[in-house]
Amino acid sequence: MSTKEQILEKVDIAELLNGTSELVLHNDDVNTFDYVIETLIRVCNHTSLQAEQCAMLVHYKGKCTVKSGEFEKLKNQCLQLLDAGLSAEIV
């Protein structure tokens, strides 16, 4: 049995709101490649090539930054990915 440790970083709220954040998609064993690709195209306005490359990176590396920008702009996209059943977070 392994123990997972999480390290919480203190981040200034102003930095989150004004700085550059990243929308990160995580791998799962539920969704198909086609579904992930279609969702990235719809939610993140990716081209089919971008979405395919992100899906491959997520599959082989475990996660991939799919969008960068201001926190407030990424928040809606992150919620849409979550609503679609994908695993995503803003960092």
UniProtKB/TrEMBL annotation:
Pfam families named in the record: ClpS (PF02617)
Coiled coil: none
GO terms for MF: peptidase activity
GO BP annotation list: protein catabolic process; proteolysis
Keywords: Hydrolase, Protease
UniProt xrefs under InterPro entries: ClpS_core, Ribosomal_bL12_C/ClpS-like
All copies of domain Adaptor protein ClpS core, residue ranges: 22-83
Family annotation (Gene3D superfamilies): 3.30.1390.10
Protein name: ATP-dependent Clp protease adaptor ClpS
